[in-house]
Write a structure and sequence with these properties.
mainly alpha; two-stranded antiparallel ribbon; 6 strands; globular
């Protein structure tokens, strides 16, 4: 079962809250999909938690040595996750980026992006990701990697690979988000967990 701040029971017995998962208990025997989705949700929860109590201006701020903001991290992660699911399901992504517009995916656009809108979109993406994985016939199903210079040519990967990749991508940026939040107001992950539980 997942340990989260707000708990809701789902059909598969996992306690789910898309926003604030804090612990992943062992999966039910043989529930590989559930285990992978639980770890993705846990990492998303860590990222979302870094926005706890922030204004839009604070979420857009870049207080560390990096150019990353907390809002920009959430925006990037939600667009990247949705883009991977679109690729695997062979549908169009919600957002496309070219080299000129790549940077906008890492920052909040004034008048358009708010903490509330970014978190709502991230939750929507999480729901669609979970639905995609739960409905996939097999984690062994494959899809071609995108034609990008950092991927090998003509390689296909499994849905299992995709789930692991999403865990890795989200965990990497969760660490960035922890540093940006601590640089912003000194709050650490443990303090944010306590704040989220209030």
């Amino acid at each position: 079962m997942l340990r989260s701040v707000l708990l809701s029971e789902s059909e598969n017995g996992y306690e789910r809250c898309f926003s604030m998962v804090m612990h992943v208990n062992p999966e039910a025997r043989g529930d590989e999909r559930g285990a992978l989705l639980a770890f993705i949700a846990e990492q998303r929860g860590g990222v979302r938690r870094t926005l706890t109590g922030l204004t839009d201006a604070q979420a857009a701020a870049t207080p560390s040595a990096s150019a990353l903001s907390l809002g920009g991290i959430v925006k990037h992660l939600s667009q990247v996750e949705q883009g991977w699911i679109a690729l695997a399901s062979r549908t169009a992504p919600d957002a496309t980026r070219d080299p000129e517009s790549y940077g906008i995916g890492f920052r909040m656009v004034e008048g358009t992006d708010t903490v509330a809108s970014l978190l709502a979109y991230y939750e929507d993406v999480a729901r669609r990701t979970e639905k995609f994985f739960q409905e996939a016939p097999s984690l062994d199903d494959t899809f071609p990697l995108p034609d990008e210079p950092w991927f090998p040519d003509d390689q296909e990967v499994s849905l299992r690979w995709l789930a692991l990749h999403l865990i890795r991508e989200t965990a990497r940026h969760a660490g960035h988000a922890d540093i940006v939040r601590e640089s912003l107001d000194g709050k650490t992950a443990f303090e944010l967990v306590a704040l989220a539980q209030q």
